[in-house]
Amino acid sequence: MKYKTGEETKMKIIDSAFQLLADKGYDAMSIEDIMKGAGKTKGSFYVHFKTKEELLYEVIESRLDRDFGHIVEEIFKELSVDTCNVQIVLKRLMHLVHTGTGGADRELWTATYYQMVVLSKKIPFVREWMLKQYHAWVDFMSKILTRGQDLGQIRTDIDVRVMVNMLISLLEGYELRSMVDLDVEVYEQIKLIELFSTNQP
């Protein structure tokens, strides 16, 4: 019971920090703020974390990976079918990316993620995590598009890496804009997927 209570407290601290990162940013949020949001005393912070930076690492690892492992598993399962439609797979991927926020509201997830972009300039492990994420996504999406080329469904006159970087940049750009423009249609990026198809009009 004591272990369960400890884990629940730890998750409340992580949840509080996740929200405060979006609302105030890393530098402006204090340990007192975090523990107030968690409904716990400041002393219990140090039972679970040595520093605020250690907590940040836990937030990144537990709340910001977009459910990558699950998404990869789902998509590769679809790609393994000989009759798969890679354009449909890519559109499904865009949906999974937008909903892969660990159960958090997408607006909250996006605001926290872009705090990480800012922090990557001054905290090495944040930069390393972001680079690792980019490389994993580029490798993953390259395999999807290469599969599409092998099936004759995706254009071969554009380098796969160029197409992947365009998709990732468009995804992030729309998410950033959605923080300001609540009416933006994030799924407009699907039009770019259609342009990569060999069956384009």
Q: Can you describe what's shown?
A:
The chain has 201 residues and is mainly alpha-helical. The chain folds into two domains: 2-61, Arc Repressor Mutant, subunit A (Orthogonal Bundle); 64-196, Tetracycline Repressor, domain 2. It has ten helices and no strands. It is elongated, with a radius of gyration of 20 Å. The chain starts with a helix and ends in a 5-residue tail after the last helix.
Question: How do the helices and strands line up, and which of them pair or pack?
Answer:
Layout: H1 2-23, H2 31-38, H3 45-48, H4 52-63, H5 68-79, H6 86-99, H7 106-119, H8 124-150, H9 160-178, H10 190-196
Helix pairs in contact: 1-2, 1-4, 1-7, 5-6, 6-8, 8-9
